[in-house]
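Hi all, posting the design record for the shared folder.

TITLE: backbone redesign
STEP: 1 of 1
STRUCTURE INPUT:
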């Protein structure tokens, strides 16, 4: 696959392949696929100041006029929104909007693990042995991702779920399991910010651990220690945690991203869970599965 290859994913609900309608596609393909674009990426676009400026711009009252055209162009369903489309004071307020509880029911089976966010998902049943993610030969570096050699060793041969959120998605993320959640730690707070779109990750998977990240450990009954990481990206204003450390329930809101694409990575201990069949099947073909927060992604062994 190259930077120009269309982004396709399998929609769990429609049971068919979909070609993604990428917000800002021409800019992404230019900046990650051309010499002049890569120069602009290095000099300007990857710098935290650029993303902060863009986030500020999307928080200005004038940006509110972008909301209705965006909803119409990308076919979003206002009936899911907790508030009226006309009520948002800026595009950023709309971007991290809340939904009605019934719009995202959480699977109630005690043995299930749920997706932490709306988005396109890939899984690795064994993150240590996998050598193919978007492009053959790219592997996850757990030590760099987690920022700790000791912690990385605890997840050796564990399972990984990568949940990629597009600008068109619901941008609040939730706990995939119940348990005792520790205080969130920030990693690489001052690092540069890169896109987490396949357009960028086809070039370098390293962008995931070079970006700003936040890490929360959850001790979950029947599973053990689960690591939940939020990954910043170009034009993500910031990562906000809204939960209180302590006891959390599966599906509880954990936080939200300000404007921009972003990702959530969830790591499970070796042998603790088994991913859903469709997720395993399509991930083996380097194809993401679209699914919504609260739906089953795995079951506890």
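Okay, here is what came back for every position:
SEQUENCE:
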């Amino acid at each position: 696959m190259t930077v120009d290859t269309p982004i396709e994913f399998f929609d769990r609900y429609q049971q068919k392949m979909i070609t993604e309608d990428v917000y800002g596609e021409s800019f992404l393909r230019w900046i990650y696929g051309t010499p002049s674009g890569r120069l602009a990426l290095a000099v300007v676009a990857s710098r935290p100041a650029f993303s902060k400026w863009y986030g500020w711009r999307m928080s200005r009252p004038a940006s509110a006029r972008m909301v209705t055209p965006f909803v119409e162009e990308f076919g979003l369903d206002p009936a899911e929104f907790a508030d009226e489309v006309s009520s948002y004071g800026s595009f950023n307020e709309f971007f991290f909007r809340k939904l009605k509880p019934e719009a995202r029911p959480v699977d109630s089976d005690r043995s299930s693990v749920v997706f932490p966010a709306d988005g396109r998902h890939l899984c690795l049943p064994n993150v240590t042995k996998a050598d193919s993610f978007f492009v053959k030969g790219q592997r996850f570096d757990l030590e760099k991702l987690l920022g700790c050699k000791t912690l990385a060793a605890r997840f050796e041969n564990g399972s990984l779920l990568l949940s990629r959120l597009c600008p068109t998605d619901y941008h609040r993320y939730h706990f995939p399991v119940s348990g005792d959640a520790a205080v969130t730690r920030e990693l690489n707070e001052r690092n540069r910010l890169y896109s987490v779109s396949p357009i960028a990750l086809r070039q370098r998977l390293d962008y995931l651990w070079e970006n700003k990240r936040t890490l929360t450990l959850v001790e979950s009954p029947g599973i053990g220690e689960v690591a939940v990481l939020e990954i910043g990206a170009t034009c993500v204003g910031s990562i906000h945690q809204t939960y209180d450390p302590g006891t959390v329930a599966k599906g509880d809101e954990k936080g939200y991203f300000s404007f921009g694409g972003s990702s959530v990575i969830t790591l499970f201990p070796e042998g603790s869970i088994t991913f859903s069949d469709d997720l395993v099947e399509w991930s083996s073909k380097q194809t993401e599965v679209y699914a919504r927060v609260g739906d089953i992604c795995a079951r506890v062994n």
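COMMENT: The chain has one domain: 8-300.
Let me know if anyone wants the other runs.
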